[in-house]
Specification:
Pathway: Amino-sugar metabolism; N-acetylneuraminate degradation; D-fructose 6-phosphate from N-acetylneuraminate: step 3/5. By secondary structure, the protein is α/β, with parallel strands linked by helices. The chain is built from 9 helices and 8 strands. An 8-stranded parallel barrel has the order 1-2-3-4-5-6-7-8, surrounded by 7 helices. The radius of gyration is 18 Å and the shape is globular. Bound molecules: N-acetylmannosamine-6-phosphate.
Length: 238
């Protein structure tokens, strides 16, 4: 699959992000493939995945578009989602149809500029480019640089964007009014109602991760919520 991917096929639909970190009980490419297959059974139209091994395993198991990224920590930069040209190329080589990259204006590892990375990928690959942004300005700039999709992924994860527990509906709406490329709503979408509200605010497609593919995080949310009641009833019982 290459640039022939028709993004209109994803309009109004859902992407499931299948990611786990070393140490998670769900860590490992085989399990990510299972999550991806389950997502497709449920009607997801594409998969988002992290790291070349997971991308390649999922690509072999599914026919839908795969959005790939590679999260890596660099000592000289806060950028960690497909931070370098080399990381982006590894994602493409693993088979991603769409490469997601941090598209903030922050300094990148080794001082590479976002513009250089985008120009290089446009010249050397057929993959579509998805800009993970945290503000309206970053989204507008990403469209100017030639990104094919802008996603609200990083809202709440840069120090200068709103830190909320909800999806950033305001950013989704502002981007949808201001740019022509498809706007994906991503980040803290935990319920079907929230996903629907993202679309009602202008999102082209919604991306859901944690609520579906990080069961330990969701379990913790339940446990934390009910623990207040349990603590109270224990105090009352003496
Ligand atoms: C900020 C960051 O690093 N986001 C990552 C991007 O790939 C993933 O950890 C998220 O799971 C993904 O964006 C989906 O969001 P949520 O898991 O909230 O549904």
């Amino acid at each position: 699959m290459s640039k022939t991917i028709d993004l209109t096929g994803l309009r109004g639909g859902m992407v499931v992000s299948c990611q786990a970190y070393p140490g998670d009980a769900t860590y490992g490419s085989e399990i990510m493939v299972r999550f991806a297959l389950a997502a497709l059974e449920g009607g997801a139209l594409a998969i988002r995945a992290n790291s070349p091994p997971d991308i390649s395993a999922i690509k072999q198991a599914v026919k839908v578009p795969v959005i790939g990224l590679w999260k890596r920590v660099y000592a000289d930069s806060d950028v960690y989602i497909t931070a370098t040209r080399a990381d982006a190329m590894a994602v493409v080589t693993a088979g991603a149809d769409i490469v997601a990259l941090d598209a903030t204006a922050r300094r990148r590892p080794g001082g590479e500029s976002l513009q250089e990375v985008v120009s290089y990928l446009k010249r050397e690959t057929d993959a579509l480019l998805m800009a993970d942004v945290s503000t309206l300005e970053e989204g507008i700039q990403a469209e100017r640089l030639g990104f094919d999709i802008v996603s609200t992924t990083l809202s709440g994860y840069t120090p200068y964007s709103p830190q909320t527990s909800d999806p950033d509906y305001a950013l989704i709406a502002a981007l949808s009014r201001s740019i022509r490329v498809p706007v994906f709503a991503e980040g803290r979408i935990h319920t079907p109602e929230q996903a629907r509200r993202c679309l009602e605010n202008g999102a082209h497609t919604v991306v859901v991760g944690t609520a579906l593919t990080r069961p330990h995080v969701m379990t913790r949310k339940f446990v934390d919520e009910i623990s207040h009641v349990r603590d109270r009833s224990q105090v009352e019982r003496g």
